[in-house]
Amino acid sequence: MRELREISMYPLFKKNMKLPFLLWAFLVRTAWLINHQSQQETKFDVEQRIHSVLDQIIQNQNDNILIVSHGAFMMMMSKELLRRGFKGKKITRPKMENYISLKKNKYITIL
Known about the structure:
Pfam families: His_Phos_1 (PF00300)
Protein name: Phosphoglycerate mutase
Number of helices: 3
Organism: Bacillus methanolicus (strain MGA3 / ATCC 53907)
Number of strands: 3
Shape: elongated
Strand order of the largest sheet: 1-3-2
Order of helices and strands: HHEHEE
Radius of gyration: 16 Å
Largest sheet: 3 strands, mixed
Distance between the termini: 14 Å
């Protein structure tokens, strides 16, 4: 599913400027959170993408489901699953581990 792709981050500056990675990551993530014009995909867009993916999965769920995705997207997806009544721990810092949610005797696992 293409919708499970990572949240796209775009440069803040038009110049070919080199920044330390952690500074770049902080600036770009902050720009995304405040809907800065440099970011082509807004937080609302990502939330809509998550709603669409989860609606499709839950509507067609006949058995356990495994979702493989990326860090920030997984964090937002886990928040939405909890909001929808799934049980499990919230992903606050993605690691190479799984997240298991349970609802009506069926599992959704996010890796």
